[in-house]
Amino acid sequence: MDRFEWSEGHLFTGEQLVEQQTGVALYDGNDKTAFECGTLILTTHRLLWRDQRNRSCVLCLPLSLVVYLEEQASGFAKSAKIVVHLNPAGAQKPPGPTTHSVHNYIRLSFREAGEKEFYRTFQEMLKQKQWEKSLPGPSGANPQLPRHRPGIVGIERSIEQRNKETNKNISVAFEDLSKLMGKAKDMVNLSKTIATKIKDKQGDITEDETVKFKAYLLSMGIPNPVTRETHGTGDKYYTELARQLASMLTKPIEESGGMMTLTDVYCRVNRARGMELLSPEDLLHACELMEILALPIRLRTFDSGVAVLQSQSQNEEEIINTTTALVQERSSLTAEELSQLVGVSVLLARERLLLTEKFGGVCRDEHIEGLRFYPNMFLHPPA
Fold first, then answer.
1. Distance between CA 106 and CA 3 in Å, rounded?
2. How close are the terminal C-alpha atoms of the chain, in Å?
3. Is the pLDDT reported for residue 363 higher than 60?
């Protein structure tokens, strides 16, 4: 573990995202570490590990330190693992989680499967050694992995991979079909509403109203939504999807106070995509990449488990100060009252109050009428 460095989680210039897998734990040799549940990200230059609970905790390992890899199959109550043998770190290595380790290897424990595909891609990156090239490709591109695998073993792996892709495509097709059937009623009601508006306006609708109505219809959709058919099923799909989501949601999120719950994002995005519905899993994976790709919005999970998309310009200290001032001005506030004051949902208003309470700005009072917050007289006594 002494080869790992602390990282901000952003890609360098010329560095490209290759593969990622959730539910991965880190071992220092055979010893368990505190890094138990995170997202493992492979790029052309580094291996990154991001804590799924504390997203500001990011570790990185340069691929130049990797000597070779080994696979460890899963067993009874044991997950499959990849053993990464490492060279010693240089004298000028940036700080990391530990300064000394007796082991010259780490183990990556895959508790949600996906280790075989990750292992193959990891091997390919080590063969390519893109970190040694003087002219790296543009940031965000998906490197083309060599597909030729000579020999019988290569043929068997190719057949296995094709079967896996076929099964995955069938599953995705049925998932999208089920979601489309679930949304059919809402889509029919929406079309009836629009048809009624047109019928009511027929004969006396002005040219200006026609232009406004057309603009209203266009604002409901995305002209060219990113799909698996246009961008494939790999990391390029999630990267382009993350960029399109950021482009579409940045302004609405800023207008909503700098935050929007992931459930609201899901409804808004699928309404805009029309027939090209997005699965919850694809939306989550794309949102997890936003911070890595340095996009203007990022995924944030509160202590209560509520997941939101938050603007990068959102100032947490300013939110706490504003909420504290509002509570002091009104003597006390509930989440419902705060939501009406600042124009956000009740759920986000509650999270703002809980965040302010965490930093000592307000105190809570729980009684039969519900949860109400008051100014913190312990830290800020009245004059």
1. 9
2. 53
3. yes
The count of residues in the chain is 383
Sheet holding 307-311, edge to edge: 259-261, 307-311, 297-301
Sign of the dihedral through C-alpha 202, 205, 207, 210: negative
- Which pLDDT belongs to residue 372? 92
Token representation of residue 322: 């504003």
- Which candidate, 48, 45, 40, 129, places its Cα nearest to that of 80? 40
Tokens of 290: 């936003």
Q: Is 84 helix (H, G, I), strand (E, B) or coil?
A: strand
Give me the percent of the chain exceeding a pLDDT of 90. Answer: 21
Alpha-carbon distance of 128 to 121, in angstroms, equals 11
Phi, psi of 201 (to 5 degrees): -85, -10
Compute the distance between CA of residue 46 and CA of residue 65 in angstroms, rounded to an integer.
10
Span 138-148, pLDDT tens digits: 444 344 433 44
What per-residue string of b and e applies to 2-26 under the rule 16 or more CB within 10 Å gives b? bbbbebebebeebbbbbbbbbbbbb
Q: How far is CA 194 from the centre of its chain?
A: 34
CA distance 155 to 146: 14
What confidence tens digit (pLDDT) does each residue in 73-109 have?
877 778 889 999 998 888 888 889 888 888 899 999 9
142/352 Cα distance (integer angstroms): 38
Residue 97: which H helix or E strand, with range? none
Instruction: With beta carbons less than 8 A apart as the criterion, state whether 131 and 45 touch.
Output: yes
Whole-number CA gyration radius for the chain: 25
* Phi, psi dihedral angles at 217 (to 5 degrees): -65, -40
Q: How confident is the model at residue 174 (pLDDT cuts 50, 70, 90)?
A: low
Per the listing, tokens 């990556």 go with 108
